[in-house]
């Protein structure tokens, strides 16, 4: 369809320019549909590409599309080098998945913030904290400190690092505080960019902020939501929405609203509010009383931040020349290969398998006590052999609740894998012998640990992005382990562990087995007064 000219309109789901010429390229829309939409009253403004449509309606991708890493870096670099507004460079909101620490992209941020890039700083958001149970009092403070340490190790310290906050883009936890922080300190004096690695939650955060009173009033009527999917690389280019000008009157009304909500108890909520709150409690351990509400319709759109329609217009790589930006910009940052994508187990999986591997609800830890000579399998994606040690040790699995865990003697582990890999027994991968012919074999790496106590884990064995196993052993007990991950993926020995007391979140020992009954801690609700409190 060479006769169909480019329209210059981007997909409202992933941000790539819509086109009908190349089915294998990003932004493809069938020619007949493309023409029909172009001739319609709204044109292509609210249209999504075929890939986003498949993701939204069927939860599957027609193919895994990624813009070249160098192209992504050029886009980010060009944006950061835009002329300053009000004498201030852009603020970077960097989103990382706390479960994926150490974050693969974080070490690259200092290069983006070189002396010739007048950025306004970096505000790092540790996302998905709602999925992790509280293993001890003060666990959020400890998690935040781990993120701070990761920033320091990456070279982010001092002035460039504005703040570190823990949030859940999905349940709303921490987002009211984030909006207050942005409105009080950053206000409307510069652009804000949203960056992060694959599956860190950028699109979900974008959609939540779009409905909040951080977004220009009524902008949600003209700005479509980003496509949210567990499939890696959903957002391919730039998306945007306008930030509202936080006048004194607006900040006052916002503070009044927050005080009023914080004074309520769960019993005082409407039936619909309670229903939604209970839904959130099933999703995560840390939830907010609802999500940030959309902006007050009474607020005049004319008093939003002063800006023209090309606020983020900048020279772009080939194929992106028609992009027009506004205020808030999320990116899918592919990062430098192969650290971000090529070593991730998700790239080996089908769309159905990805859905099973990525946790979507609060993770319930599963703890097993193993003697030397025992093996633990996490689906067919990871394996840990306890080869040598004097005493039993505890192995706590932190992974999607839908992934099975199996324990067997080391002597029969190879036979179990050969017999059941690709079958329902292991669940992932799925597809039988034919699927396993194309799936890479598990490769071993020996790990030596020394226990620090029977209630405190010494390290996490992170099995790529499939999850991790926290190892707890008696003090000074030396353990020789052999951990396996699929060939081409990365095993990370995380010391200290992310949740050192995770083995204590368990029930009684199940008689005749190596397993303990699971126990799910209660959810903590933010911005809501407990019944009986004054």
Produce a short descriptive summary.
This protein is an alpha/beta fold. The chain has helices at 31-39, 50-58, 69-80, 109-112, 139-153, 175-186, 202-210, 248-262, 271-283, 351-357, 410-420, 432-438; strands at residues 91-97, 121-127, 161-166, 192-196, 286-288, 328-330, 366-370, 374-378, 382-388, 393-398, 405-409, 442-450, 457-463, 468-472, 478-486, 491-494, 524-526. It has a 5-stranded parallel β-sheet with strand order 3-2-1-4-6, with helices on both faces. Strands 7-10-14-13-16 form a 5-stranded antiparallel β-sheet, with no helix packed on it.
Strand content: 15-25%
**SSE string:** HHHEHEHEHEHHHEEHEEEEEHHEEEEEE
Please identify the structural class as seen in this structure: alpha/beta
**CATH homologous superfamily annotation of the largest domain:** P-loop containing nucleotide triphosphate hydrolases
CATH class of the largest domain: Alpha Beta
Strands of the biggest beta sheet: in what spatial order?
3-2-1-4-6
Number of helices: 12
GO molecular function, one term: GTP binding
Protein name: NOA1 protein
InterPro entries: GTP-bd, Mito_transl_resp_regulator, NOA1/YqeH-like_C, P-loop_NTPase
Organism: Heliornis fulica
